[in-house]
Amino acid sequence: MARIVAGIGSSHVPAIGAAIDNGKTEEPYWKRVFSGFEKSQEWMRETKPDVAIIVYNDHASAFSVDLIPTFALGCAAEFPPADEGWGPRPVPVVQGHPALASHIAQSVILDEFDLTIVNKMAVDHGLTVPLSLLYGQPAEWPVRVVPLCVNVIQYPPPTAHRCYMLGKAIARAVASFPDDLRVVVFGTGGMSHQLQGPRAGLINKEFDRRFLDKFATDPEALTKIGHVEFVREAGSEGIELVMWLIMRGALEQDAKEVYRFYHVPASNTAVGHMILENRRAA
Ligand SMILES: [Fe+2]
After folding, report:
1. Is the peptide bond before 156 cis (omega within 30 degrees of 0)?
2. How far is the CA of 56 from the centre of ligand 1 (A)?
3. How far apart are CA 8 and CA 202, in angstroms?
4. How far apart are the CA of 180 and the centre of ligand 1, in A?
């Protein structure tokens, strides 16, 4: 039987990917960011999950404004890195897990969460930067990936509560998959940041710290945060944090926080990172 062993929250700042790809990780500005992920890479080497369900958002790379699915599940055998305007990131092609992905699609849709099934999709920095942060620069990614792409680009994104409940449906889906797989769930994006308008550059450390505290111990409190509050407190792009709640919903209620890192800034963005382990399924 498949089981979710842990959840990983991580920002997916594109400049982090560029720093890795251009050999700048040892520069003092970037070293402060990457040092926060050294323990996590160690944890990943020890945990060795078979599959990562990566909840992320596309940044007009795979989907243009012509088509904006709220929840899109990648069921393909592989997902190439997207060309985001300066060529695809020099990272391995992401290997999918079509059998698990199709099972999740069936289970979750029959559980009344309507997903869009995607059989061909390039994946942008939203997905590949967290992989780089947790795995470094391997020749091949040592994990298969089920991408779950969420619309946080165009209003209205799904609510925090909807995301949390979808996570629970995903946990039920994974638990009913017959193969013996150890699964981790990534929630990516955030933390507070705003890239445009008069408040461009906004970072709210107090909000982020409160979010991380509640995320670990009382995630249901976060499901009550509305879109206006997210935008007011965490900036227009801070709404990406709803994706962390899909991951949290997929974990046990009393999942144990085993690692946390918070750093400001990385390219005008607050970087947040947390690892939670399930107590029973691990
Ligand atoms: Fe993003």
Report:
1. yes
2. 8
3. 24
4. 32
- Spell out the residues 6+ positions from residue 29 whose beta carbon is closer than 8 angstroms to its own: none
Compute the distance from residue 89 Cα to the ligand 1 centre, in Å. 16
Model pLDDT for residues 92-135, shown as the tens digit of each residue: 999 999 999 999 999 999 999 999 999 999 999 999 999 999 99
Do 267 and 254 touch, CB atoms closer than 8 A?
no
* Mean local confidence (pLDDT), 131-150: 98
How many angstroms does the Cα of residue 57 sit away from the middle of ligand 1? 6
Q: Return the active site residues.
A: 125, 193
At 281 the pLDDT is 76
* Mean pLDDT calculated for residue range 45-54: 98
